[in-house]
Give the backbone structure.
Amino acid sequence: MSPAAVSSASAAWADVRRRLREMDAAFDRDGLTALVLAKNFAALAQAFLQAMEADGQTSSRFRAVVKALDLKTPSSQLARFLAKAED
């Protein structure tokens, strides 16, 4: 197994699969909004990060994704990050 390989059989990966099903189901409900999708995406990203960490992997990129999708992260902080990335 390569160093980047993960074991998708663990309980943490079961949560990722559950979050994927929830996100897919969101498209079939009335009242779908960007906020509903964002919350589902945030939950999926958090589950993915937890599964990666449970398998001994680290991912600063997915930690950044989780932080960016957290609605408590100030928009100004995201704007500063994006401005630096565009330089």
